[in-house]
Amino acid sequence: MGEFCYQSKNGRSYKCKKCAKIHIEYGTTIIELDINQFWKFDKYIKNINPVLGKDQPLMLPLLGTSIFCRFTQKEFEEFKLLISYTRKYLTDDYFMSIGMMNQLSGHTWPVEIDKTQPN
Fold first, then answer.
1. 116 in a structural domain
2. Is 87 exposed, middle or buried (0-12, 13-18, 19+ CB in 10 A)?
3. Which residues of 13-40 are buried (b: 16+ CB within 10 A; e: fewer)?
4. CA-CA distance, 119 to 12, in Å (whole number)?
5. What's the pLDDT tens digit per position in 39-88?
6. What does the pLDDT read at residue 109?
7. What pLDDT, on a 0 to 100 scale, did the predictor assign at position 113?
8. Is 86 exposed, middle or buried, given 0-12, 13-18 or 19+ CB atoms closer than 10 A?
9. What average pLDDT does the segment 22-48 reach?
10. Residue 52: φ, ψ to 5°
11. What are the residues whose beta carbons fall under 8 Å from the beta carbon of 46, sequence distance 6 or more?
């Protein structure tokens, strides 16, 4: 187990302390990503805005594989929120680590931090 990023009704995400990977669990699907893969996955998910009929499912291909996740509109919104909160947690964690590194290195002056997210 690791540090919790977020938990929803049907899923959760956390950063594993042992392997440093991001684990995303939703329903019966488990996705394990390193930090660079997570940022690509996050960008992929952010760019999907389906407009589905009442009973029409969204078939989401997982990063160039022949494996699909099936979502209703409501489930996908919850999944997207799970990814969004994970992104926020990882971004905050990154900026806090930069601040801690500056503090440990003895720098007392203000340091400009580039707050853009990695590609």
1. no
2. buried
3. bbbeeeeebbbbbbeebebebeeeebbe
4. 24
5. 999 999 999 888 777 778 888 887 667 888 889 888 999 999 999 999 98
6. 46
7. 52
8. buried
9. 91
10. -110, 155
11. 80, 83
Gyration radius of the chain's alpha carbons: 17
Q: Which residue has the tokens 């290195």?
A: 105
**In-domain check, residue 90:** yes
Per the structure, the count of domains in the chain is 1
Residue 6: name the closest of 70, 75, 72, 84 by CA.
84
Dist CA 24 CA 83 (whole Å): 8
pLDDT tens digits, 90-117: 888 776 766 655 555 555 545 455 555 5
CB atoms within 10 A of CB 76: 21
Where in the sequence is the domain holding 97, given as residue range(s)? 2-104
Only one residue has tokens 């995400």, namely 13
Residue 86 belongs to domain with CATH number: 2.30.31
Residue 21: pLDDT above 70? yes
